[in-house]
Specification:
CATH superfamily of the largest domain: Lrp/AsnC effector binding domain/regulation of amino acid metabolism (RAM) domain
Shape: elongated
CATH class of the largest domain: Alpha Beta
Distance between the termini: 31 Å
Radius of gyration: 20 Å
Number of strands: 4
CATH architecture of the largest domain: 2-Layer Sandwich
Order of helices and strands: HHHEHEEHE
Helix content: 25-40%
Strand content: 15-25%
Low-confidence stretches: none
Strand order of the largest sheet: 2-3-1-4
Amino acid sequence: MRKTPAAVPVLDAIDRRILAELQEDGRMTNVELARRAGISAPPCLRRMRRLEEAGVIRGYHAETEAAMLGWQVLFFAIVGLESQKQSVLDAFEQLASSWAEVRECHMIRGGGDFLLKLVARDTAHENELTRRLTEAPSVTRVTTLQTIRTGKDVAGVPIPRD
């Protein structure tokens, strides 16, 4: 589960530039990031640490090619539960979060209770995951949507330059 920051920090143009550059390339050195942000390295590092501590920057990761790692199928599942009691919602969220194949788990409104993004090795594995979902406690309905192709997949969020 994501932690919600206590207070959203005020971001100036340099903070926004740092965030935009890191979303494009999280591996660049602090010196290169500082150059792109138009400041020297020490204040750049201080700003990054402040953004990390505030929860604006949640982490750094490598973006991998799923198919090259054996994950041939990307699909989504809309899951409806028998109740919206907090204990039922929490139990399902905990279950879904425990599956390695579930890459995202969102509580939604309108048309279901949860939207999951899943990966599977092949169609048989997708069918197994769908069966596991439909048989999970408190689940009343599962609608799956298999991805044919992905036209856009961008990490992060738009960050206005100014």
